[in-house]
Amino acid sequence: MEKAPANSEILFSSREIDNLVSKIAAEISTHVKAAKTEPLFVGVLNGAFMLLADLIRKVDYKTQIDFVKVSSYGSGTQSSGEVKLEFGPKNSVQGKDVYIVDEIIDTGRTLLFLKNHFMKLGARNVYLIALLDKKVRREVAIDPDFVGIEIPDEFVIGYGLDWAESYRDLSDVRVVKT
Ligand code: IMP
Ligand code: MG
């Protein structure tokens, strides 16, 4: 089977993604150095596994990492609108500066839910990071503190983003043409 679907084309090459990740990492490095406290980076599974791995190596500061898993998307391309915490985080977030890492923000429901959840768990601050921002799709009042780039309302796959659980392994971000 072909690695990428035939009805898809590259939106951001792996090189362009690398530049976006470097840009975010530089901003975050400045931010955490000013805060002078060891941050906890929390990746939102499954989508953020690649971004977290790439980002964390570019952040120039001592850090901790953890993961959470949430469910909201079904197997299609439409969000159910409901967010549920499946598991995580393993570490205590009490008093910590938490940076939640997601590869894309769409309706905003996932990151809003997680921000509220981490505040309830006693985090000192919660910051939101999203590589891609489908700003026109927002349904709740939340914006990430650190963004790679804004994209139009199109369905994207690759670099962690799935289509019915496939294509997360693509190095490029591709847009699916339907
Ligand atoms: P939100 O809660 O609507 O902001 O959705 C966030 C989650 O929906 C992301 O972490 C992705 O898992 C998923 N998602 C949103 N847009 C896309 C897309 O274009 N392709 C694949 N997954 C997406
Ligand atoms: Mg996700």
Your description of this structure?
- The chain is of the alpha/beta class.
- It has three helices and nine strands.
- The chain has helices at 14-35, 49-58, 109-120, and strands spanning 8-12, 40-45, 64-73, 79-87, 97-105, 125-133, 146-150, 156-157, 173-176.
- The strands form two sheets. A six-stranded mixed sheet has the order 4-3-2-5-6-7, with helices on both faces. Strands 1-9-8 form a three-stranded antiparallel sheet.
- The radius of gyration is 16 Å and the shape is globular.
- The model has no long low-confidence stretch (mean pLDDT 95).
- The structure holds inosinic acid (IMP) and magnesium ion.
- Inosinic acid (IMP) is lined by residues 44, 47, 72-73, 79, 102, 104-110, 155-157, 161-162.
What's the topology here?
Elements: E1 8-12, H1 14-35, E2 40-45, H2 49-58, E3 64-73, E4 79-87, E5 97-105, H3 109-120, E6 125-133, E7 146-150, E8 156-157, E9 173-176
Parallel strand pairs: 2-3, 2-5, 5-6, 6-7
Antiparallel strand pairs: 1-9, 3-4, 8-9
Helix pairs in contact: 1-2
The structure holds inosinic acid (IMP) and magnesium ion.
Inosinic acid is lined by residues 44, 47, 72-73, 79, 102, 104-110, 155-157, 161-162.
